[in-house]
Design brief:
Structural class: alpha+beta
Number of helices: 3
CATH architecture: Roll
Largest sheet: 8 strands, antiparallel
CATH topology: 3-methyladenine DNA Glycosylase, Chain A
CATH superfamily: Methylpurine-DNA glycosylase (MPG)
Order of helices and strands: HEEEEEHHEEE
Amino acid sequence: MSAVLFDDFGGDSPDLAARLIGARLLVDGVGGVIVETEAYRPDDPASHSFKGPNRTNGSMFGPSSHAYVYRSYGLHWCLNVVGEAAGAVLIRALEPEFGVETMSVRRGFARPLCAGPGRLTQALGVTGHHDGLSLQAPPFDLLRHDSGKVPLIVGPRIGITKAIDQPWRFGLQGSAYLSRPFR
């Protein structure tokens, strides 16, 4: 495994979302390869930052390379990487590599472990306490992928009702760990 930190948070959110595919995300040593992301730009009506800062989305307006963690429908935590100011990338799925037993216990041995943003955060142990933390410091490790360009699939985002036509969902082509197939 490469020990080189992922440090390229520049550009807009769709560009960052594509570059995160193939990177490794670990929380306290538990995690794996990011295989699916979704981008949200500041001018995007589906983005939490679209109407400006509030008490729950403040991390989106903070420094890049930090986590924006929020509750979805009051049930599941969701982990985002902040890139451009008020833009973020939702981590939708990863391929489990490290701490698989720990992830299994956290998920109640339910499968899939990390296919979907709520399952992913449950498996990694991410909660609201991680909101605003740097992804370049413990408990996080965000590492660049070892190879050159990774084969991507691109499609519209899922699970939203606004700006659904934007092709800002990215996946690792051929991955068996995506949250849903691409159309």
